[in-house]
Amino acid sequence: MTDQRWPAALAEARLHVVSGKGGTGKTTLAAALALALAAGGRRTLLVEVEGRQGIAQVFDTPPLPYAEQRIAVAPDGGEVRGLSVDAEAALLEYLEMFYNLGLAGRTLRRMGAIEFATTLAPGLRDVLLTGKVKECVGRTVGDGRGGRGRVPLYDAVVLDAPPTGRVVKFLDVTKAMGTLARTGPIHSQSEGVVELLHSGRTAVHLVTQLEDLPVQETLDTVDEIHEAGLPTGAVLVNRVRPSRLPATALTGAATGAGPGTAGLRSGLEAAGLFLKDEEVDGLIAETVEHAERVQVEAAVRSRLDAAGLPQLELPELAEGVDLGGIYELAELLREQGVR
């Protein structure tokens, strides 16, 4: 049964763009989302464009080349492939595909002309990177899969995009097109990118945590996404920690109006626990800190709820995030309706 936290419209998206404030777990959740979407025998592609080799680190593999390769097997037979897109390599690919300049392109690379070109026209770099992603989304494969004719090579493409401070500028290649050629293959490629990114085949998901700055940056980015005419997806709330206190005790604990040292000691001793004074004081301090955090998280959550976007929650993993943790997060996404 599909959970409403992942609406049916998102199940129709072919390109899932994942962004978030630095440190919120953007790459981790992009990887988990790619795994979740690949479950059940499907094939997804996880793409990065920042040159950080974050995907390789998450899946504990060697650095990814400018070539798609399998990096993980999803539950029930699916697979995830990874790709690290480099603007220079993408430009060389375009020169060879559209202008048959393979050898000349390599010569330009040795001369440093490609770096010069992408520096001179900054919008060109974003068009090249998003253009490669668009090509992956649109790629099809032969007449297999039950004789249904040509079908998409990838059931979904997940883009580990730049952080929220830069993601809208990166995706809004309409503005970049004004600095490029008004005709020709790269201009046509730009138009195709614009069409894809502004269609229902794309969803821009934002990763956040229940803290003031990440939530505020998320809300600001939602406004920017709407202004740019890009399609919003879901908010992925990462590292959610449960409240350890009943709601009736939170306010008192946060203000220090709890049972106090004597009351706490009495309750502990009634349960057969005999602690030193410093240990009891430490428990009280931790309780106050926990209650204050829960109240802050409740306040920022209400601001997030006001945005009206679907939300999926991922817990803070007790053992940290390793490869097994990525699979655990992917399963939790599946439980919340990701398909």
Walk me through what this model shows.
The chain is of the alpha/beta class and 339 residues long. It folds into two domains: 8-241 and 316-335, 3-Layer(aba) Sandwich (Rossmann fold), CATH 3.40.50.300; 244-307, no CATH class. The chain is built from 16 helices and ten strands. The strands form two sheets. An eight-stranded mixed β-sheet has the order 3-4-2-7-1-8-9-10, sandwiched between helices. The protein has a two-stranded antiparallel ribbon with strand order 5-6.
Question: What order do the SSEs take from the amino end to the carboxyl end, as H and E?
Answer: HEHEHEEHHHHEHEEHHHEHEHHHEH
Percent in strands = 15-25%
Number of separate domains: 2
CATH class assignment of the largest domain: Alpha Beta
Outline type: elongated
N- and C-termini, Cα separation:
10 Å
Major β-sheet, in short? Answer: 8 strands, mixed
What's the CATH topology name of the largest domain? Rossmann fold
* Count of helix runs: 16
Helical content (DSSP H or I, runs of 4+) = 40-55%
The CATH architecture of the largest domain is: 3-Layer(aba) Sandwich
Can you list the strand order of the major beta sheet?
3-4-2-7-1-8-9-10
Mean pLDDT: 84
CATH superfamily of the largest domain: P-loop containing nucleotide triphosphate hydrolases
Pick out the low-confidence regions: none
